[in-house]
Design brief:
The protein is an alpha+beta fold and 204 residues long. It has 5 helices and 8 strands. 15% of the residues lie in helices and 28% in strands. It is globular, with a radius of gyration of 16 Å.
Amino acid sequence: MPLLSRDYYTQDATTVARTLLGATLVRQIDGRRISGRIVEVEAYHQQSDAASHSHRGQTPRNQPMWGTPGHAYVYFTYGMYWLLNAVCEPVDYPAAVLIRAIEPLDGLDLIAAHRDGRSPKEWTSGPGRLTRALAITGDLNRADLTLQTSGLWIETGDPVPDDQVKTGPRIGLGTRVPEPWLSMPWRWWVANNPHVSRVRAGSG
């Protein structure tokens, strides 16, 4: 399948997030392909979004968000997990889409090895789980998602119809994020997909 283009990522973060559902996230390791269908995402929209890493200004950690769209923003959190984001919107308009969950497609043996002892439903059903399954670490921060030579890219897939998509507030923001940002319905997921991380009460 063709890769998503640079122009695609220049769109509004909410548009990118919604249309990434059904696309294929691909990781290449030693010539082996590991991939999964994207089934859950969250949008973080520029500095006005109080839930976004960019809200308090540019830092060495979040600098990729100000860069060229179509690159990866990979950061470490809770002292345990790497999380993968796709940078979007034009340069200097810091926004990104967090890839929260994928449905495994290729390289299942490698995913199983990376997630040793976990059931298939636990392999990639969460942003920290999928990075472990695909061996995504800080070494891939700023990777170009529009080039196969980066070892990490996103391909087009089958669009998910609106009647198969659910939306709701983003997860794990805590009480530090004020309204209306705390309740913004900027999380999208494929309804009834077993690989989605979790469904929060009140999500529609």
